[in-house]
Amino acid sequence: MAAEFDLIARCFARAPRRADVPLGIGDDAALLTVPPRCELVVAVDTLVAGVHFLADCAPHAIGHKALAVNLSDLAAMGADPAWALLALTTPDLDEAWAAACMAGFEALARRHDVDLVGGDTTRGPLTITVTALGHVPAGQALRRAGARVGDAIYVSGTVGAAGAALAAQVGGAALPDAAAIAAQARLDYPQPRVALGRALRGLAHAAIDVSDGVAADLGHMLTASGVGATLELAALPLGPGVPDTPQGRLAALVAGDDYELCFAVPPGAALGALATVHGPLTRIGTVEAAAGLRVLGSDGAPVALGRRGYEHHA
Amino acid sequence: MAAEFDLIARCFARAPRRADVPLGIGDDAALLTVPPRCELVVAVDTLVAGVHFLADCAPHAIGHKALAVNLSDLAAMGADPAWALLALTTPDLDEAWAAACMAGFEALARRHDVDLVGGDTTRGPLTITVTALGHVPAGQALRRAGARVGDAIYVSGTVGAAGAALAAQVGGAALPDAAAIAAQARLDYPQPRVALGRALRGLAHAAIDVSDGVAADLGHMLTASGVGATLELAALPLGPGVPDTPQGRLAALVAGDDYELCFAVPPGAALGALATVHGPLTRIGTVEAAAGLRVLGSDGAPVALGRRGYEHHA
After folding, report:
1. Which residue of A has its CA nearest to B81?
2. Rounded Cα distance, B43 and B60, in Å
3. What is the Cα–Cα distance from B140 to A182, expressed in whole angstroms?
4. Which of A18, A241, B24, B137 could bond B16 through an S-S bridge, CB–CB 3.0 to 4.6 Å?
């Protein structure tokens, strides 16, 4: 494995920045110190070339996104991210490609004070698996279960832009230039809502990140909570490149890759101060006792969802 | 992702067995409780079809081995394994295959009281990435660095059998029937030395697991420790299927996939009681001040290693 070790040494090797890493990359395993009275929070997600990103996607964006989708999972738990491990499978030892991928990973890691503490490089079809680790004061994590009847359902930021960019990319749909650039940035460089997730501790009854689309992910939250909801399509905050039409709003509702947070808070919760810091937080619906997700169109009439989210078999 | 969720639900879903899992599979991330005054120990390793196992390898063995190689990393740190996450990329949603793979994973997980706490299934070329997590009393982990001049170098069990099985499989080399079965079992179902690693805490100055071959991995330990060593080829404990010839011993020295532990202990250390519990522990060499690994043949003459380990680009 000398070749492997060279690649790791060049692209992965780094001294730990965080004081809570007694032993980082370079041994059989890393040693980490979880703060007292905290729970460890762990998530893993894989991106596969041709499935989660196009094969010609910039390696810098791939490195960013592989970490971003995992930090988004930690954000949805209200966790403080701390460490990550990276397993990179590449068809060849292209060091320029690997260096660009690691640069994208590292830039996001630094922004969130995350240390890369373990890695594995293997030869094979391009796949990248990141394990993100963080912590949360014991008992304070946000879960999917916990939404209560009467809760207001919010989504952060805007949704649908990544889906619009993907549709333009693979389906050839034309977007206005400015919107196209903004939407593409949302697809390639999603920003995990780490600070917002942390701020929602003690406030939100339940939370989930919008990776598979608002409809699908809100559906998971409602199912886990044993409740249902009505959602108003007209309230959905549309991202760049999403046409403000009934079809556009429906597409934004089921599009994936947004990595915003969807959460349930008590009906009277004042989120104005939070929105000042974390950007728009939009109320899109209300939790109800009857199971299932009901969607109302702009005219107040029920809208049928053919599929509740997009499926890409993973 | 409904298809994905179905697969996960069927193959991954399980209630946590361990009391230190406040939240297992099914949310954005898992919540885990690390015992007080312990360091978290984390490792990640990927197995790729056609690289780390043959495409027609039994899924049960693949599931076993994907966990085993990671538990072996924890064993080399002297850690107590506790949890694992599994990222499985498969070309299709073959549930029988996935169920068999998970059965192999789960059988080994139960044996070591490891809970699967997170998973991701994606469509793509067959790869399986496991993140293993455990803990060790703070400051007591075994590291690669720490071997001292004069230390005795030991290896557990026997080595070379997995390499012999692989050579027979891909190279057509004939093995006697009984040896072939035993060697194949070593290749397909490596047994991580978890209990031995734990027992070496406070005793070994340095340790590493033999995944890339004794020569390569001992080399990593020596480099990390800033020392060298002389190793006696005649002392190498040969596994089933390894011919007791100079060529056979040399092959066993550089063959990978053994997942035994190689460790350095003070020269006078008595390992008899340990060997009674954990099987043969064989002294194979001595740590010296001069950098590099020197190998002596059965006749006491130096043996040249063309390559210090086998390379499979990971």
Report:
1. A29
2. 22
3. 50
4. B24
Q: Pick from B43, B74, B93: which is nearest to A313 by CB?
A: B93
Binning pLDDT at 50, 70 and 90, where does residue A172 land? confident
Is the confidence at residue A33, as pLDDT, over 80?
yes
Cβ-count burial of B171 within 10 angstroms (0-12 exposed, 13-18 middle, 19+ buried)? Answer: exposed
Beta carbons within 10 angstroms of residue B262's beta carbon: 26
With CA atoms as reference, the chain B residue closest to A309 would be B1
Residue B172: per-residue pLDDT:
73
SS3 B210: strand
pLDDT bracket for residue A305 (50, 70, 90) = confident
Q: What is the mean pLDDT of residues A101-107?
A: 95
**Residue A106 touches partner B, C-beta closer than 8 Å:** no
What are the beta bridge partners of residue B303? B295
| Residue B37 pLDDT level (bands cut at 50, 70, 90) | very high
Half-sphere exposure (Cβ direction) of A29: Cα atoms closer than 13 Å? 32
Give the residue from A28, A32, A29, A38 showing the smallest Cα distance to A16: A32
**Token couple for A310:** 């997009």
Q: Residue by residue, what is the 3-state secondary structure of chain A?
A: CHHHHHHHHHHHCCCCCCCCCCECECECCEEECCCCCEEEEEEEEEEEECCCECCCCCHHHHHHHHHHHHHHHHHHCCCEEEEEEEEEEECCCCHHHHHHHHHHHHHHHHHCCCEEEEEEEEECCCEEEEEEEEEEECCCCCCCCCCCCCCEEEEECCECHHHHHHHHHHHCCCCCHHHHHHHHHHHHCCCCCHHHHHHCCCCCCEEEEECCCHHHHHHHHHHHHCCEEEEEHHHCCECCCCCCCHHHHHHHHHCCCCCEEEEEECCCCCCHHHHHHHCCEEEEEEEECCCEEEEECCCCCEECCCCCCCCCCC
Q: Does A4 contact chain B (CB < 8 Å)?
A: yes
Q: Which residues contact A56 (CB under 8 A, 6 or more apart)?
A: none
Is residue B117 predicted with pLDDT exceeding 90? yes
- A105 has pLDDT over 80: yes
Query: Does any CB of chain B come closer than 8 Å to the CB of residue A226?
Result: no
Return the exposure string of B119-155: e unless at least 16 CB atoms fall within 10 Å of the residue's CB, then b: bbbbbbbbbbbbbbbbbbeeeebbbbbbbbeebbbbb
Residues 6+ apart with CB under 8 A from A75: A81, A192, A193, A194, A196, A197, A198, A209, A261
**Predicted confidence (pLDDT) at residue B55 exceeds the cutoff of 90:** no
Backbone angles phi, psi at B176, to 5 degrees: -60, 145
Q: Mean pLDDT, to the nearest integer, of B270-293?
A: 97
Q: What is the mean pLDDT of chain B?
A: 92
Please give the pLDDT value at position B314. 34
Q: Rounded distance, CA A116 to CA B84, Å? A: 18
Closest CA to A131 of A105, A154, A98, A101: A105
Q: Is B76 within 8 Å of A22 when comparing Cβ atoms?
A: no
pLDDT for residue A311: 37
CA dihedral (A141, A211, A159, A74) in degrees, to 10, reads 30
pLDDT (tens digit, 9 = 90+) per residue, B60-83? 999 999 999 999 999 999 999 999
The reply to whether B51 touches chain A by the CB within 8 Å rule is yes
